[in-house]
UniProtKB/TrEMBL annotation:
It comes from Culex pipiens pipiens (Northern house mosquito). Belongs to the ZPR1 family. Residues 450-468 have a biased composition (Basic and acidic residues). This is Zinc finger protein ZPR1. GO terms for cellular component: Cajal body; Gemini of Cajal bodies; growth cone; nucleolus; perinuclear region of cytoplasm. The lineage of its organism: Eukaryota, Metazoa, Ecdysozoa, Arthropoda, Hexapoda. GO terms for molecular function: translation initiation factor binding; zinc ion binding. It comes from the Eukaryota.
Length: 468
């Protein structure tokens, strides 16, 4: 019975696929046109954009006056951190970079000291040139009336719109910065899978006000008093473990299970979790999810300890299939670089995982196929040729026919690669470097504001200020 019920589960956010487009199905809603106030049609499509997330695409069309509008909104979970993307535009080709921006994105043109505030525009899929055109249209919208009522202001706006239009002529480079507190924005890298020297991406921890803007509140903010403690026998997702009932030795040998939702089809499934120790490294928590409904299998690894005092950089020379069996623990913050292919995979792209060198190369290939598939149909011939060449080289490496140097750079120090020498002698193909993190790395990890000494005194002072 359970299997039959699972088979009837329909994906709420089906994958975006041109071949299956007729089967995706849109929801049509009759709604008022904001231009002529007659009835038009709004179409909603819930889908998944590869390498991005679940989204809700909305399109409005009015047959009476011809007015059209479209926007995009994220339909998945909120990203844990905000994102800041700064792109230097120095060639006409850069104007065609595809951009996914949410409602909470602010866009700033640095050279003009001009900023589009967050929540002033709806989320959309556009290009750099499209962002400029939308600003020009917005400024020109009320110009006829403004030229009559406020001619001086209208003249200044005309001059500014001319300056914006000159940006598209690429007489000189300019910089666009997108800051999104929801973390749901994206700018295309036209040089993928190589790193983009014109783009700087950083993540930041949202403050209290920004969380409230997104509708995120802590339990203390939601309730004036602490929530009542539920009885231990009450059915719930999380239950208190009586003290002493799970000694550490038993926890290492036990596989724990808890109910969750499949990230693909949203059906009920189970996640298995186990605490284990990697020899010569540390304790880790391995989590694996298997969905009986769609067959999805995922695994994720979390370090059992905290952030190490120093970051770690590991270089592995992959000489052939002998190195493919090396165990690899990659944390979520670990950056990957393949020197011979000039391929960079940022931290968080592959998630935390416990795999092998071969599994890591295969995962990189699958991830890049999904990421490029987001805009594959509109890529130019040069980009397709470059990607075909890259995938050919990567396939040769996976087949063991090409030597590579894989570099793992983890500022948290929680990544590991197995040595093939069990006798403790140095492994010539494995090089490990420890380094002190920079201020920017500590800022991204949230360590600069972390206080580990005398924090109890500070908490008491804050409490006294509130009560006083």
């Amino acid at each position: 019975m359970a299997a039959a019920e699972s088979a009837d589960v329909v994906e709420i956010f089906p994958k975006l696929n041109v071949d299956d487009e007729p089967e995706l199905g849109t929801t049509e809603i009759e709604s008022m046109c904001v231009n002529c106030f007659e009835n038009g049609t709004t179409r909603l499509l819930l889908t998944q954009i590869p390498f991005y997330k679940e989204v809700i695409i909305m399109s409005f069309c009015c047959d009476n006056c011809g007015y059209q509008n479209n926007e995009i909104q994220p339909g998945g979970e909120m990203a844990p951190k905000g994102i800041r993307i700064q792109v230097k535009i120095d060639t006409p080709k850069d104007l065609n970079r595809r951009v996914v921006k949410s409602d909470y994105s602010s866009v700033r043109i640095e050279e003009l000291d001009f900023e589009i505030p967050a929540k002033s525009q709806k989320g959309e899929v556009t290009t750099i040139e499209g962002i400029i055109d939308r600003v020009v249209r917005g400024l020109d919208q009320d110009q006829p009336v403004r030229r009559i009522q406020h001619p001086e202001a209208a003249e200044q706006i005309d001059k500014f719109t001319d300056t914006l239009k000159e940006l598209k002529e690429m007489k000189k480079p300019f910089t666009i910065t997108i800051k999104d507190i929801s973390g749901n924005s994206f700018v295309e890298n036209p040089r993928a899978p190589q790193s983009d020297p014109n783009t700087t991406v950083s993540h930041f921890v949202r403050d209290k006000e920004q969380n409230h803007m997104l509708g995120i509140f802590t339990q203390e903010e939601m309730n004036d008093k602490k929530p009542e403690k539920k009885p231990e026998n009450e059915d719930g997702l999380l239950k208190m473990i009586p003290e002493g009932s799970w000694p550490l030795e038993e926890l290492h040998g036990e596989v724990l299970q808890f109910q969750t939702k499949c990230p693909e089809c949203k059906a009920d499934c189970e996640t298995n979790m186990k605490v284990t120790t990697i020899p010569h490294f540390k304790e880790v928590v391995i989590m694996a999810t298997v969905c009986d409904n769609c067959g999805l299998r995922t695994n994720e690894v979390k370090p059992g300890g905290g952030i190490e005092e120093k970051g770690v950089k590991i270089e592995v020379s992959v000489r052939g299939r002998v190195d493919f069996s090396r165990d690899v623990l990659k944390s979520e913050s670990c950056h990957l670089h393949i020197r011979e292919l000039d391929c960079d995979v940022g931290g968080g792209a592959l998630g935390g995982r416990f795999t092998t060198i071969e599994g890591l190369l295969t995962a990189i290939r699958e991830q890049l196929v999904e990421s490029i598939g987001m805009f594959m149909d509109s890529n130019d011939a040069e980009t397709k040729e470059r990607m075909d060449k890259f995938f050919g080289q990567l396939d040769d490496a996976i087949a063991g026919n090409k030597k590579l140097t894989v570099v793992l750079d983890d500022p948290t120090g929680n990544s590991y690669v197995q040595s093939l020498n069990d006798d403790g002698s140095p492994d010539e193909a494995l090089r490990i470097f420890r380094y002190h993190r920079s201020h920017d790395q500590n800022e991204e990890l949230g360590l600069n504001d972390m206080k580990t000494e005398n924090y109890e005194e500070d908490a008491e002072n804050v409490k006294e200020e509130k009560t006083g």
